[in-house]
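Here is one record:
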Amino acid sequence: MARRPLPRILSNGSAQLARSRELARTAADSATDVLHPLITITRGLRRLAAAGRRRWAETPKERRGALLFLVASVVLVVALVPYGPLLAAITLMAAAAWQGRDRSPTASDGPDESQSQRLKSLYEALVPYFSAAEDPEPLYSHGGAWDKAFPTYAFDGGGRISQLVVRYPAYFTDGEAEARARIEHLLAAKSGRGREYHFTWDEEGNQLTVGVLPPLPVDIAAQRFVTTPGETVLGFTDPTRVQRTLPLTHGEKQRDVPPVVWRTGLRSTEPHLLALGRPGSGTSTLLRSIALQALLHGDVVIVDGGGTGEYACLTGRDGVLAVEAGLAGVTASLEWAATETERRLIAANQAHQAGDPPPDDTKRPLWILLDRPTAFTHLAATDSRKDPQLLLQVPLRHGRPANVTVVVADQLDSMDALSEPVRQHTRARVVLGPATADQLESILGAPPHTTPIDELPPGRGYARLGNGPVHRLQVPATPNPYDDATPDALCEAVLDLLPPRTTPADGETIPEQDQSEGEPGSAPAEEEPESVRVAEEEPESRPDAAPALAEEPLPNPVPVLTKET
């Protein structure tokens, strides 16, 4: 059977529909232009009628009779006057046309005098950087027209530049970081200090777009984030750099905020983190936030080099293996962490060779959080002991396949005191607090696309994960809940996230013995082990052992960190 051709209306229907739509739009525009006076007069009559109704409603009842008499007298006079009705109709149409005019304010075609002066001064400041003596038609010259160089601009309510598009000549070296930095510094200084500017360079079109970034929210408290195991929320950033948002609870409201998510585990390319900042910049807040998120699926070992009790709320909690603030305890904890890393590697390797899945005790993440580890470096050198940072070499180098993550937080001034393994294997970097552009570039490995400012709230800074872009960062408010200066709402938010208190894995509860040992029903006292009696009798049999013990007292026993599978 031969196939019948489609009707012509269906074969080229799209073109006819488009042509018909264009004709209808043209006819509507023409009718609007022709009937514009009639539309204006009708709108004015409607406004006059509404004003008359309001006037009648506002008039008291005892005066409405006099008002009606006055209106009737005016109508009678107009009717008796020669050409009165015609003049009255013309007057009514004129009043209606005046009332029906478009009252929307017209946008100004250009900037005012103060804005023009600001743009002109900015243009003159850019002349030495964007001009050359060999250019026959320079875009930038002293006394030139700034409107060609700035095709797009916008101002805020205070009269300062909020958005600007800058055209520059093709011979400008926009591929050099130093040349870019000079232009960005100049634009930030001339546009207004105290704000963060974002710069977008278009090398193909020879244009630079300058925008003012809004401040990041600082009122987001610690809470449960919607993440998967292996994801840690470091903070929040601008929506232009992140394609993901998290639902957050702010008081009784909920909103979506773009986060900076750090991924750890076997497939992570940045398994360890280094956070630097000035005192009071929020590095301890960042460590507490990471600890609260890590305790959901793993175990945590905390080293407090500040010695101010910032992590006392985590002591004895479920999943917290140790919170150490002394040199002996820190050394023992880090030695155990290195041994545990080796044990996990050996167990996983044996399972792989046997064709079995890794043991369960090697899958549970282990987090080692160190706050100011350089403080113990000086103590170890004074005591002629081993630097605790050297014990991090095994967890840093082999921690990723063993599910061991190391997070180090220290001050900017102590950057040189950090060991080489710490600086080499921590590819996820965070800088909090005020910092210069050179410091940010040396720590993060790349300059940020915004201009750093001198005054920043706590927890505010920059973050870069590996070779990714540099993000603005605001750490969620996770203060010390035992601090009296902390608001009650923030304290309750942190306390609600803490795990319950449990006894340590190596702890042993010894029952209290009854004072009356002779009573029936009392359990007999357990005999001391043989090794203990020998140890107690040894000083009596060896008289030369007492002076040695007196010269070098034994340190306090350190609990062995073990986890039973």
User: Anything to note?
Assistant: The first strand starts at residue 152 and ends at 155.
